Amino acid sequence: MGAAAYLPDTTYYNRTGAVEFMARLEREPLLVQGPMGSVLMADAGARDVPAAFWNLAEPQTVMRIHRLYEAAGAQILLTNTFQASRPALERDEIMPSMAEVNRAAVDNARAAHPQVLVGSMGPCGIDWTLPDSPEFRAARDAYRAQAHALLAAGVDALLLETFTSIRDVEPAIKGACDAADGMPVLVSFSIGEDTNLLGDGLTIEGAVLYAEKHGARAVGVNCCSMEAATAAVPRMVRAARTPVMVRPNAGNPVEAEDGSLVWDERPERFARACAEWLQAGARMVGSCCGTTARTTSALADVLVARTSYE
After folding, report:
1. What's the CATH number where 113 sits?
2. pLDDT tens track for 231-287
3. Is residue 110 part of a domain?
4. Is 249 helix (H, G, I), strand (E, B) or coil?
């Protein structure tokens, strides 16, 4: 069945915001906020609480994190919905509906008055065998439903992030594009130290070409090491026809005495790498798991200095 058969009500899609966002990407590099999940998990006693739970249970906490990132200089905020598809919410025993959780996440981020708001979507967890199998259709349906919930709530674009293989991303791109009706869908992969996809070993160039062929309006990497990200950026820029994104993580956490998780953040290291990413042609820069608004602020200084120099 074609995508047109699934086309939902798009009355409330923020098409003006989408056009402005994509136009800005053509003109200037933009700074993306840091992670939500690892910040929420960092407090003692919170490491096992699913990030999506906070959207309705503790919205003020989610709003506070978004405001910190915005104050630090983030031009793009990401909704706290990485694991807020219907299968993920059911797995985590979060009882409110998928639409409620995603709308609350959009409202929480909007409270920080972002310049651009992008809806985050991660892997839904459904494994599949064949493209016409019930499992594939269920995965595509899950992505389609979450994409529509985010777009109907007013995000400017969708970000499919931390996908480790083409197998995982295929139903995600198809489902998101079913709902998008022309709104931007961005795709970001997680890579190993060899800059190949962690799940299937495909080169980053192959992943970029696949994503673009199937509708991605920007491509990139996230939740990988600094070294892998820095090596991947020039390769992606050479291969891509769309803007390139880069958001590495801060490595693996260690457990503190109080049970909380601690990462070796080192914002100055991110700042040095960011200068390289921008020089290589990256258009969306940021940081992933283990970083905070401190790193966002350091990256903002790099973008300001670059603008002043130019």
Report:
1. 3.20.20.330
2. 999 999 999 999 999 999 999 999 888 888 899 999 999 999 999 999 999 999 999
3. yes
4. coil
